[in-house]
Amino acid sequence: MSAGEPLPIRLHGLTLGYDRHPAVHHLDGTIRPGDLLALAGPNGAGKSTLLKGLIGEIPVLDGRIEAGGAIAYLPQADTIDRSFPLTVMDLAAMGLWRRLGPWRSLRRAEAGVREALATVGLSGFEARPIGTLSGGQLRRALFARLILQDCRTILLDEPFTAIDARTTEDLLGLVRRWHGEGRTVVAALHDFGQIRSHFPATLLLAREPVAWGPTAEVLSADNLARARRLSEAWDEEARPCDGSRHAAPSAAPVPPEVRPHRHAHGDGHRHDHPQGHDHPHETAA
Amino acid sequence: MIDPFTPFIEFGFMRRALAGCLALSVSAPPVGVFLMLRRMSLMSDAMAHAILPGAAAGFLVAGLSLPAMTVGGLVAGLVVALLAGAVTRSTVLREDASLAAFYLISLAGGVLLVSLRGSQVDLMHFLFGSVLALDDPTLYLLGGISTLTLLTLAVMYRPLVMECVDPVFLRSVSRAGGPVHLAFLGLVVVNLVGGFQALGTLLAVGLMLLPAVAARFWARDLGGTMAAAVLIACLSSVCGLGLSYRFDLPSGPAIVLTAGAFYLASMLAGPQGGLLRRLVRGGHLEA
Questions:
Q1: pLDDT in tens, A24-51
Q2: Res. B257: pLDDT tops 90
Q3: Is pLDDT of A119 > 90?
Q4: Is there a contact between B256 and B201 (Cβ–Cβ < 8 Å)?
Q5: Domains in chain B, please, with CATH?
Q6: pTM of this structure
Q7: Which residues pair with A12 in a beta bridge?
Q8: A84 to chain B, minimum CA–CA distance in Å?
Q9: Which residues of A touch B222 (CB under 8 A)?
Q10: Are B221 and A97 within 8 A, CB to CB?
Q11: Count of other CB atoms within 10 angstroms of residue A66
Q12: B156 to chain A: which residues are within 8 Å by CB?
């Protein structure tokens, strides 16, 4: 495991967006170390935007993010140029950048790369050009790269979209292993069944945060319907936001009881881990 | 039949031309390979044209002076490369469109500037280079460019490859992406200025792109592609110069045409996706 004190990621009135239109609007909350959090919500709800904001890929329009330590990130659509003549080995080895930098030799780390590839079921693919991989195999190779990045926080943007059941199962196993190792994993997902069975906590987004907490409570029919309604409007004529709407809870479009509650992990919920460990979450600050 | 090496042994200007072209052949093709893989082939052409008004401005100020024209060309090439990027980021125009606009402006402006002071001969020199009249300073310049290019590529090889394959990933782990991209554009401009001295504005990209594109048909991995590109460029230089001497052809076009012939031959016969290979590949394999 990588060194360093695990730190929470705190979001303070975070607003992210494109062309001044917020895609994530006034989000408050804390992602605590070791959380296994699903981001749910319709298309355009701001899931990808939030993840991109967390790694600094898009600028913060308002509010701020308090995050420490290295963050590993798997983007949604592969941004990878698959026609580039690169081997699977080299692609995975990119994950070692923080350790090796631009010049240090890969030779001594090679065994580690092979092991990571074996973990994702790609033994024997080391010398294959990335252009010859199937979609699922490429996703496996990218997970190997995430393993090698060895970060305390891992962000996954729709990691199982267009991936077959077998691959999804294998990669979910890897996500569970990371959770067992105490890493923070945040994944944007569409499949509610998957979220319910594998992710103890969920943040439901519809540009506004709709609910944040234990998955079973967040994914209620009410919340889902509200999320759908909220996400359907993109107002070209939207006026500049003065923040007042969000300062006074009574005026907020989201009723107080489902305002993103300050991550009440302490209030009695427990979740099952396939590894059989059972850690009561410490009470949130 | 005369010995193909005779002209190089007998004539100093042919040896100089060969030395200059070989220096270019070692540095420009690897840069060209990256350009091709990043789908920036046409951009390099636009940048080559952008060098012209800069070099012409140097010419206006100082006559046919190597330092003045080189500095002018470098500045103009870098400015256009950066401007095109800035226009793409801040307006609705895509990069290819903004590059096309810049390159037309540069070419027309450059020709105008040269004609203000120079003769037709000077203009031809600018457009098609003067590989048979390379003097010592120019040769040093070409050698220096070659050395600088290879060293820079070696230093930034890893981040450059990552920037090509997965720029989002590189941004998420390092801030090297921006500087690496700029350094790469710098290498492109520097090599184009070198190519400009030997082959002129219009053909400067010839030794950069044609060998790189041809090499894609011979190698599967990046290192092999770059090695093949350098080899093809060197062969093109030797054969092109030899042919131009033997048949009394203009040297710059002869070199670029030879590289073009290598490209066509590679496209036909190359083992990696060449046409012949596709025609005769036989039935499919067992699943």
A1: 888 898 999 999 999 998 888 889 999 9
A2: yes
A3: yes
A4: no
A5: 6-270 (1.10.3470.10)
A6: 0.83
A7: A64
A8: 6
A9: 84-86
A10: no
A11: 11
A12: 102
